[in-house]
Amino acid sequence: PEYFPECLNLIKDKNLYNEALKLYSPSSQQYQDISIAYGEHLMQEHMYEPAGLTFARCGAHEKALSAFLTCGNWKQALCVAAQLNFTKDQLAGLGRTLAGKLVEQRKHIDAAMVLEEYAQDYEEAVLLLLEGAAWEEALRLVYKYNRLDIIETNVKPSILEAQKNYMAFLDSQTATFSRHKKRLLVVRELKEQAQQAGLDDEVPHGQESDLFSETSSVVSGSEMSGKYSHSNSRISARSSKNRRKAERKKHSLKEGSPLEDLALLEALSEVVQNTENLKDEVYHILKVLFLFEFDEQGRELQKGFEDTLQLMERSLPEIWTLTYQQNSATPTWGGGVLLCCPSWS
């Protein structure tokens, strides 16, 4: 104990936290001091969740709460708050803080649950759920608290506004897709003429092949399920997004640029993926449109979405025309959005 301060400085300087913790009993003051130092080191390295767990393990609950708030681990933050014996008002304040962070992460269902359970604010929770298009969860709270008036004042208007936004988005995607496709055909014709005249280099087919593979995997994957997998999409979208970002530094959509055709393929691929990624959202809003007898709006959205998907499906063989496609199965869509609404058929 006499030389522990010097020992602790050495541990910090040489980053020997894990080794040092093995030498002390978890119940000792030295173990706690090393743990706190380790947690602070992890915070400096922006490793907030491991830092929070380290603080919580050694009983440094206030530091643990700060770390969990920083990294957005709301469940652990609330666990630590209970250990700190937060009052009802303190829990409500913490709940609102956490809900705000969760909304920033587009985790509206989690944010609403925190508001309802810890801030006792079910009305704000319903509004967050509507903002996040969690229609059925919003309805669950409405009926739980017997506030059927909210259906007329907030739920129905929110659903109808979302339907309009989806229609506008689909119109925009269709226009963008058609424009890029038309330009791509023109560029390819110009390139072919230039190649015949010996004025152009060979197109880098490998990159175009990558784009075809990426897009065909999106459309083929829709056959496996009528519902879209958010977790898988986030993983694949992140890696492909990073790659596309790097590629776009040298590919330009400016007319006449050397690799304009590849830039157009990238843009078309992105439009296809963005549209396909709407499948789950459209499926859920169609259910509530049907529930509240908004049949006209429901038919319009379902037809608009299916028309957009079919336009892209028909265009894929024309857009990706390289010889490698002869050895690949033609990508097909999963049939659009399926909903058991006989009256819309």
From TrEMBL:
Stretches with biased composition (Polar residues): 210-223
Biased composition (Basic residues): 240-252
ELP1 three-helical bundle domain location: 149-319
InterPro entries given in the database record: Elp1, HB_ELP1, TPR_ELP1
Domain ELP1 TPR stretches: 3-140
GO molecular function: tRNA binding
GO cellular component: cytosol; elongator holoenzyme complex
Region (Disordered): 196-254
Pfam families: HB_ELP1, TPR_ELP1
GO annotation terms (biological process): tRNA wobble base 5-methoxycarbonylmethyl-2-thiouridinylation
Protein name, entry field: ELP1 isoform 3
Species the sequence originates in: Pongo abelii
